[in-house]
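Thread: quick sanity check before group meeting

JM: Hey all, I'm pulling together slides for Thursday and realized we never actually wrote out the predicted structure for the chain we discussed last week. Dropping the sequence here so it's in one place. If anyone has concerns about the input, flag it before I start.
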Amino acid sequence: MSLIQYDIPSKEKINFYIIEAKQNNKGPWDKHSLYVGEAAKAIAKRCIDIDEEVAYAMGALHDIGRREGISHMHHIISGYEFMKKEGYECIGNICLSHSFPFQDIREYFGKLDCSDIEKEFIKDYLKNVEYNDYDYNYIQKLIDNKAK
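JM (edit): ok, ran it. Output follows.
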């Protein structure tokens, strides 16, 4: 288990968030997110310092910003802000970082549908954040890029 304790929602709360968000965005992102959560949990089981329930929560909620509707880069800001507001900063950080394996906004693959202020926030965040085990080991990023 990781030396750092993370406050994460229960599986029931995770499912509630996804069901609620699905009302605003009917795309297949919900199945993708739950698959990422399960895959992250399976990988974490084989890792020494990664908690499988934390990995599941981070994986399952990494795209929760899609709750605001169809978007591209904006979903990472939306998810970050929502999870922080709900009291889950560690998951908010994954929402923001999961699209950037190299901590560089230029690595984003997709439409940059954020305001200039949001783009600057992302640039500063990526420049200054220290990725934790869940980021550094690229669990979320690897699975997110492979999950259909």
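AS: nice. Residues 11-146 form one domain. Residues 82 and 98 are 15 Å apart (CA to CA).
JM: adding both to the slides.
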